[in-house]
């Protein structure tokens, strides 16, 4: 029966200490903040936890503040609208502000949090409809068969699971080399973005390093890319509400008209945000121009292994990489 949630016990702790205590008492607890992803799971009765812990009311997990190195700290329960409208974010990390703006619709951004956006599970329709695929504990990938509909799925890392990361802000945060602060067993751990998002080879049942009982406290963006030239673009079937077919985020530094340093990440082409290291190596020390764009287009999608219906993602990915470099000209 869809759109009717199961019964569960709801806790709404006021402090991080209370949240830890509740999670310690209930091993099967589900953490919720904005609920934009969680409530879908509940309504479709694919996930039916007995205990739900709403952390949205914990003050320590909310807000945006400056760091000493020129970077920012963003609390996990800060809404996407707050991230997009923050002058601190827009002036230092415009790629993240743009990524937050392109998530879903205004109503969802007003409620959805940045912590929830980076932690959400894949949108693969087979998985979310309850098929017993590898990710759900089964022994088949229903999206990777001769008759499967897989136009939204992976170009890289095609193995047991071909699902892709659905988060727009994850792409920007990876390009900005963010650090995720996680509360785990009473202590805090800082996890680099490159390690926070994980693929099937590490654990096919989850998309992030968050383990049961973990609380994402906040995200720290170091000052390294503050004020740099930045770019974000998302291509989707619809401009509002939809998830990306391909998106891209870039941060770059220029010196005497040439690219002195760069970070470029592509999304919706792999289970995790894909760092385009070949493009980065190619363009460092070079001046933007048509010749460089031609070379970027040749290497951006190197190694891609398209499925039955997502070949179009290859030129889309290549052209987005070119457009990002062109923005520096």
TrEMBL record:
GO function term, MF aspect, one: oxidoreductase activity
Domain FAD-binding PCMH-type span(s) in chain numbering: 3-226
Keywords carried by this UniProt record: FAD, Flavoprotein
SUPFAM superfamilies: CO dehydrogenase flavoprotein C-terminal domain-like (SSF55447), FAD-binding/transporter-associated domain-like (SSF56176)
UniProt KW DNA repair keyword: no
Record keyword Nucleotidyltransferase present: no
Cited Pfam families: CO_deh_flav_C, FAD_binding_5
SMART domains: CO_deh_flav_C (SM01092)
PANTHER family registered for this protein in UniProt: XANTHINE DEHYDROGENASE FAD-BINDING SUBUNIT XDHB-RELATED, XANTHINE DEHYDROGENASE SUBUNIT C-RELATED
Identification of the protein by name: Xanthine dehydrogenase family protein subunit M
Organism of origin: Chelativorans petroleitrophicus
């Amino acid at each position: 029966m869809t759109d009717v949630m199961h019964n569960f016990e709801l806790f709404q702790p006021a402090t991080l200490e209370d949240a830890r205590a509740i999670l310690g008492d209930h091993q099967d607890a589900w953490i919720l903040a904005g609920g934009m992803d969680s409530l879908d799971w509940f309504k479709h009765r694919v996930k039916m936890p007995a205990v739900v812990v709403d952390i949205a009311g914990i003050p320590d997990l909310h807000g945006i503040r400056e760091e000493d190195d020129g970077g920012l700290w963003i609390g996990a329960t800060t809404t996407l609208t707050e991230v997009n409208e923050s002058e601190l974010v827009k002036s230092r990390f415009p790629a993240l502000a743009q990524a937050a703006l392109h998530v879903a619709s205004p109503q969802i951004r007003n409620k959805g949090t940045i912590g929830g956006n980076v932690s959400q599970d894949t949108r693969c329709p087979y998985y979310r409809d309850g098929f017993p695929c590898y990710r759900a504990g089964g022994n088949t990938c229903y999206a990777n068969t001769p008759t499967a509909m897989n136009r939204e799925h992976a170009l890289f890392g095609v193995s047991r699971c071909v699902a892709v990361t659905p988060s727009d802000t994850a792409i920007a945060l990876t390009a900005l080399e963010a650090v995720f602060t996680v509360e785990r067993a009473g202590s805090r751990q800082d996890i680099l973005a490159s390690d926070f998002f994980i693929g099937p080879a590490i654990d096919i049942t989850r998309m992030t390093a968050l383990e049961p009982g973990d609380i994402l406290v906040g995200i720290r963006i170091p000052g390294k890319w503050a004020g740099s030239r930045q770019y974000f673009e998302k291509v989707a079937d619809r401009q509002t509400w939809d998830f990306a077919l391909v998106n891209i985020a870039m941060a770059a530094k220029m010196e005497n008209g040439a690219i002195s340093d760069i970070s470029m990440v592509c999304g919706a082409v792999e289970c995790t945000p894909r760092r385009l290291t070949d493009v980065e190596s190619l363009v460092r020390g070079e001046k933007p121009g048509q010749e460089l764009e031609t070379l970027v287009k040749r290497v951006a999608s190197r190694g891609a292994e398209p499925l039955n219906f997502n070949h179009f993602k290859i030129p889309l990915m290549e052209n987005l990489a070119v457009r990002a470099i062109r923005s520096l000209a």
